[in-house]
Amino acid sequence: MKKRKLPHWLILLLLIFLYMPILVLITYSFNEGRTGAEWTGFTFKWYAELFRDRNILKAMGYTILIAFIASTVSTVVGTISAWGIKYMGRRTSGILLSINDLPLLNPDLVTAISLMSLYIFLKMTFGFMTLLLSHIMFSIPYVIITVLPVLRRISRHQMEAALDLGAKPVVGLFKIILPQLKQSIISGWLIAFTMSVDDFVISFFTTGSGVSNISIAVFSMARRGINPKINALSSLMFAVVIALLLIINKNRKTRKEDLAIEENILLH
């Protein structure tokens, strides 16, 4: 039975429906007027004011710092965890992967309230540390599901051969295993970084006074009424996320090409 394809005009209509609000937001970030009711002229004024706002700059600093630390720590922990899961039995690894998938499937609100309750139970002061720990927690599962499929394609005999030839375990790890995981590790780090920058719900429930990220700053600005700087800030965030996604897709494409080359070499 021949499969029916969606008409091109319908696909185009869906894309317009999805991206029109973003295009309007980006367009009005260059509008000279304070409201989106009418176009009054082209300007970069709101971007300039954005970078003169101390609260926004402080939130940007916290966002980048927390995203960098959280993505780096979660990449290390997630890669080590994926390595351990690979060498477990099928049943045990299946249970652990199901547990790993829970934070991905769980609503952010439930995760946020659970973490907030945990910090209250541990009598932790809400602030930078609680926010950082929360971002590390929800980033680790993304790293595991990114690294593990590639790790499973690497034969364990490669490491055994290296050890038989006199290489130390650390040398075998850094010279044989990690180079093959490089692209997936980078992709995992970028995904974790993107998720951290984009998060609002979990951050809102687990941060404290004086510590906020960009998402919380935008929410606070929106509550005070119409502010054109929100359009400028949201446009910049959208550009950063798009850039990260392009890098992630480029890494995945490069990894697929490398795997295809390796398979051709093995076949011949």
What does this structure look like?
This protein has 268 residues and is mainly alpha-helical. It has a single domain (54-267), classed as MetI-like fold. The protein is built from eleven helices and no strands. The protein has helices at residues 8-28, 45-50, 54-86, 90-105, 108-121, 128-153, 156-164, 169-198, 201-206, 214-223, 228-267. Helix 3 crosses helix 8, helix 4 (90-105) crosses helix 6 (128-153) and helix 7 runs antiparallel to helix 8 (169-198). The longest helix has 40 residues, at 228-267. It starts with 7 loop residues before the first helix and ends with a helix. The model is unreliable at 261-268 (pLDDT under 50).
Mean pLDDT: 82
**CATH class category:** Mainly Alpha
Helix percentage: over 70%
Number of helical segments with 4 or more residues: 11
- Beta-strand content: under 5%
What is the CATH T-level topology? MetI-like fold
One letter per element, helices H and strands E, the order comes to HHHHHHHHHHH
Based on CA atoms alone, the radius of gyration comes out at 23 Å
Uncertain residue segments: 261-268
Quaternary structure type: single chain
Q: What number of domains?
A: 1
Distance between the termini: 37 Å
Tell me what the CATH architecture is. Answer: Orthogonal Bundle
- In CATH, what is the homologous superfamily? MetI-like
Which class of secondary structure composition applies to the elements? mainly alpha
Based on Cα principal axes, name the global outline.
Answer: globular
Overall number of strands: 0
